[in-house]
Q: What sequence folds into this?
């Protein structure tokens, strides 16, 4: 199995979260979360369904406001940012969300151009073409440039979705269940792509997954969220070499190889 490549991980933090709380009415989802992601690092967030993994990345992206705590992303305190500052910060964050669908009525080329043309003014046609060709090459799908999303496989659509975020040269990537619904070989290819993206774009990433093969293949560090807090953190082996019942049962239910 592919392991995360030996990539230099910085000492500077891309994301730093302290004492984060978030409730929805009586539902106390995050209860004192601390998390750091260093520059160039892939951090996998694990946890059972409904433990608040998506809420955590929505708070990081400024899509949800926390009740308490500090959330620093690229040295900016996210909950204090204005809408304009948030929009600027989000340009540096690539989102690969489960529902980040492509526009069905646009070709692959048009889908990829869309964020670039909307967010970067005064680009020439040849600069746009070059950017599209470069990201398609990065995800290994140059041949699909004139295809419609409906003509692509699930794995290809996922790759184009990732390419669409890469076109903005993000510093941070947030992957929410990147391998959900894909067959094992396509999962392995997406895991490799996540590692290649890090190599090529020097991104710092959070990868939310239930898929322990994905966690093992992509994570420099894993963090296990349980009952609103991180209960264990470390490499794959460090996290799972334990007699802790909650972690053992998570492993037994989720590891398929
Ligand atoms: N905007 C919201 N309003 C009310 N409740 C919410 C909201 N967003 C999330 N929740 C609740 O917070 C809890 C955590 O949701 P979240 O989507 O973060 O879970 P998750 O760990 O990502 O789960 P899964 O692995 O199933 O995607 C759930 O009980 C969910 O119903």
A:
């Amino acid at each position: 199995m592919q392991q995360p490549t030996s990539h230099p991980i910085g000492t500077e933090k891309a994301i730093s979260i302290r004492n984060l709380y978030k409730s929805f009415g009586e539902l106390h989802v995050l209860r004192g979360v601390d998390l750091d992601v260093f520059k160039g690092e892939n951090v996998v967030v694990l946890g059972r369904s409904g433990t608040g993994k998506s809420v955590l990345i929505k708070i990081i992206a400024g899509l949800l406001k926390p009740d308490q705590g500090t959330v620093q992303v690229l040295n900016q305190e996210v909950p204090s940012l204005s809408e304009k500052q948030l929009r600027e910060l989000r340009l540096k964050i690539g989102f690969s969300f489960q529902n980040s669908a492509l526009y069905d009525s646009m070709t692959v080329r048009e889908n990829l151009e869309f964020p670039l043309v909307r967010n970067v003014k005064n680009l020439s046609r040849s600069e746009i073409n070059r950017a599209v060709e470069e990201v398609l090459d990065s995800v290994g799908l140059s041949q699909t440039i004139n295809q419609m999303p409906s003509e692509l496989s699930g794995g290809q659509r996922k790759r184009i979705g990732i390419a669409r975020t890469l076109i903005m040269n993000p510093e941070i990537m947030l992957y929410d269940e990147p391998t959900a619904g894909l067959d094992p070989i396509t999962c392995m290819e997406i895991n490799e792509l996540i590692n290649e993206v890090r190599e090529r774009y020097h991104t710092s990433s959070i990868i939310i997954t239930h898929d322990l093969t994905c966690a093992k293949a992509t994570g420099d560090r894993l963090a296990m969220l349980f009952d609103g807090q991180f209960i264990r953190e470390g490499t794959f082996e460090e996290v799972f070499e334990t007699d802790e019942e909650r972690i053992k049962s998570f492993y037994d239910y989720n590891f398929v190889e």
Summary: The pocket of adenosine-5'-triphosphate is lined by residues 24, 27, 29, 47, 49-55 (CB under 6 Å).
